[in-house]
Amino acid sequence: MDGGDALMDLFAETWQYLLDPDSWTGGGGLVARLLEQLLLTATALAAAMLLGLPLALWLGHLGRGGFLAVNVSNVGRAVPTFALLAILVAADWPGSADFGPYGRAGLATLIALVLFALPPLITNGYVGMREVPSDVQEAADGMGMSSGQRFWRVELPLALPVVASGVRLALVQVWATATIAALVAGPGLGRIITEGFARNDYAQGMAGAVVVALVALVLEVAAAAVQRAADPMPRGPAPRPPSPQGVEPVSAGSTTVAEAPTGG
Amino acid sequence: MTLLVPASQVRLSSAEEPSCYSRFVNEWFCWQYVEDRHEQITDALVEHVLITTAALVLGLAIAVPLALLARRLPRLESAVLGFSTAVYTVPSLALLPLLVPFTGLSAATVVIGLGLYALTILVRALLDGLRSVPDDVREAATGLGYGRARMLTRIEMPLALPVAMAGLRVAAVSTVALTTVGTLVAYGGLGDLIAHGVQRDFRAELLTAAVLCVVLAVVLDVVLVVLQRVLTPWTAGTR
Question: What CATH number does the domain containing B214 carry?
């Protein structure tokens, strides 16, 4: 590339592409793709929450299956999103057929999205429940609460911040995965990017990337706001207490949890 | 599209006996494919390893000084953490195009993009690790006459290592997976095979590459666990 000039040209072309109403309207336009990806994201996140959260919270309540709940994240991270999508699309079922409003390879994409949303939901749900201090649980038992009462009134409210951060991670993950669906000619905004690159129209590729990144940031900020509102005990920006030696594995674990996905 | 079929494929499709990866059989598992195309597969694997390693080295090279600096300057720390959350939020398929104007369609685009993701994970892990060093250990070291530099290299860094290594493992495993997305700029290592496999509906190629990706991630993780055992022998009993 010829240094600065080519660079500025590309930025100018990207800007023009974004200003051109034709790039937003129509079948494969930005608006249609954006709505498609938002619909995919919402559906997959809701399905994953319905599937994963009850299981994770229940396991955490019982204190069982911790190995599975924590390691599911590690497995999820090692499997490339693109590879899983490719396998689903190449298989006889679900294949690359159109699926209602979800577009080409819609079912394959939805399955992949749900699978990649599950690890952060399950890990955080479980860890959140397990991190409820045992003396609080004992106090609940001592007050004569039943197991169910302890779950709904004590453990769940206290676990909510960690569970909510799992939902937030899952949202970021689902949005990223939905973008990658374009690599298998699936639905979503990623198609603007891959079509641009396929036609050597890098301005279009850049424009698609800008929209994807901006919406991702907006979703993240919105999720953070919801998470703050859901926290029953907002803790200000207090400095973190130095963790005592004994709980080292837990704090190291939660660090990893906070960073969980990036499978795609 | 058919014009682009490589010579090797033409030869094979006209061969006498149909192999398990011919268009008509198209089996998922096919050792014949691995034997016939082992050079192509090895090349993709080597490219994958090189890109992953380069991205991790790049991430580490920036993360270590950045974490040490951020620890001294609280304002820089919050800026670094905010920046890393933002980078982390941007999907990989969108991050790579944003780098293309600067680095073109090259392996550098993939290495820098993945290095950025690794950087965000590593900086956080390093900061967490340094924070996990107990204050009384620091005070004891000060009492023994340790200066700042010696305290960092002899006390803080070794004690921060377990948490930092946990971060490196996360970064390594996710970088192996993310390298596949590099196929957008034609430098995706095994991802290029997956992309080709999807386009041609070539199941053996696709699944072989996918399995190799996962195996590579597991191998790298095991290497890092062994490395951590060697570097921090005192943690062997507790984990």
Answer: 1.10.3720.10
Q: Which two tokens mark B141?
A: 């070291």
Measured distance CA(B236)–CA(B239) in Å, rounded? 6
Nearest by CB to B94, from A78, A212, A248: name it. Answer: A212
Domain ranges of chain A: 12-232
Q: Which residues of B touch A219 (CB under 8 A)?
A: 89
User: Residue B177 belongs to what domain range?
Assistant: 32-233
Model pLDDT for residues A80-119, shown as the tens digit of each residue? 999 999 999 999 889 888 998 898 999 999 999 999 999 9
Instruction: Determine the topology of domain A12-232 in CATH.
Output: MetI-like fold (1.10.3720)
Look at chain B and report how many structural domains it folds into.
1
Which residues from chain B sit within 8 angstroms of residue A34, using beta carbons? none
Joined together, the tokens standing for residue B31 give 């050792």
Q: What is the pLDDT of residues B165-221, one digit of tens each?
A: 999 999 999 999 999 999 999 999 999 999 999 999 999 999 999 999 999 999 999
Per-residue DSSP letter, A104: B
Q: What is the rounded distance in angstroms from the CA atom of residue B209 to the CA atom of residue B186?
A: 15
Taking CB atoms and an 8 Å limit, are A80 and B195 in contact across chains? no
